[in-house]
Amino acid sequence: MSTPVEGAAAAHAPTASEYISHHLGHLSNKHQDFVVDFTVFNIDTIFWSIFAGVLGCFMMWLAARRATSGVPGRFQAAVELLVEMVENQSKAIVHGDRSFIAPLALTVFVWVALMNSLDFLPVDMFSSFFALMGWDSVIAYHRVVPTADLNGTLGISLGVFFLMIYYGIKIKGFGGWVHELLAAPFGIWMAPFNLLLNIIEYLAKMVSLGMRLFGNMYAGELLFLLIALLGSMATTFGFLGHVVAGSIWAIFHILIVFLQAFIFMMLTLVYIGQAHEGH
Fold it and tell me: Where are the transmembrane segments (predicted)?
């Protein structure tokens, strides 16, 4: 027979759906009543995005500071390989001045890769820490992966959207850019249809860029939560499933983390490269 304390603990134990819903909640400045509400700020997404950005800048600064002309160490060799890879990709895609574009691509790759890598932290680490410190009543929800938040990924893709417009105007001039919006691809006599088509193309690039990264990282985070639930089963299957499935998925997720960062960087280069070319 269970004691009253054990009975109370069991009564307050979250169900699987409550556990997942809790871990998918954001630390926000206010409750979001509508799907689109620009007055709501996900504080956890903003914090960890800035954290990953500062960490990435520090790593690149440290690599530049420690760079030597002699035999490079492991860290310098890894950074040199990364820089060379980004430089080769930007050279093959963007035909023009790449003095800003190549560093931009490197920044995007490192930043997105670091934000994605936060998914490797244990799913209950922060909630357990907040409960231990007595902060769980203040920080009831917290998500650590910014790229698993659609607001975060669309925010980055919005920056790419503005860069597409900027380089379109810079390369072709404002008049040439407007003329392309009205005349491509079916000629100036179909200007209204061309304008609508080009606006949809710009928006589709931005939305698909953010949605692709969000979908992959959200699915990965959800799978980690489902695997964590296996550990709550006091059975051999639950323990083995938690350890084996968790290990296999974590190893496979390493590929996803860096592959998604690479794809985001490549699409950024492709979209900016298209702004250098005419229809």
Answer: 46-64, 100-118, 148-169, 181-201, 222-244, 250-272
Calculate the alpha carbon distances from 201 to 96, 164, 181, 184, 204 in Å.
Answer: 23, 12, 11, 12, 5
- Angle among Cα 196, 267, 174 to the nearest 5 degrees reads 45
The first and second tokens of residue 62, run together, are 């440290």
Instruction: Report, as residue numbers or ranges, the catalytic residues.
Output: 208, 212, 216
Cβ-in-10-Å burial (0-12, 13-18, 19+) of 250 comes to middle
For tokens 């109370």, the residue is: 8
pLDDT at 5: 40
Q: What is the pLDDT of residue 164?
A: 93
The predicted structure's pLDDT at residue 132: 86
Instruction: Measure the CA–CA gap between 99 and 279, rounded to whole angstroms.
Output: 24
Q: Tell me, rounded to whole angstroms, the distance of Cα 131 from its chain centroid.
A: 27
Question: For the chain, where are the alpha helices, taking DSSP H only?
Answer: 4-12, 16-23, 43-66, 74-93, 101-117, 125-133, 150-183, 191-230, 236-240, 246-275
pTM strictly above 0.85: yes
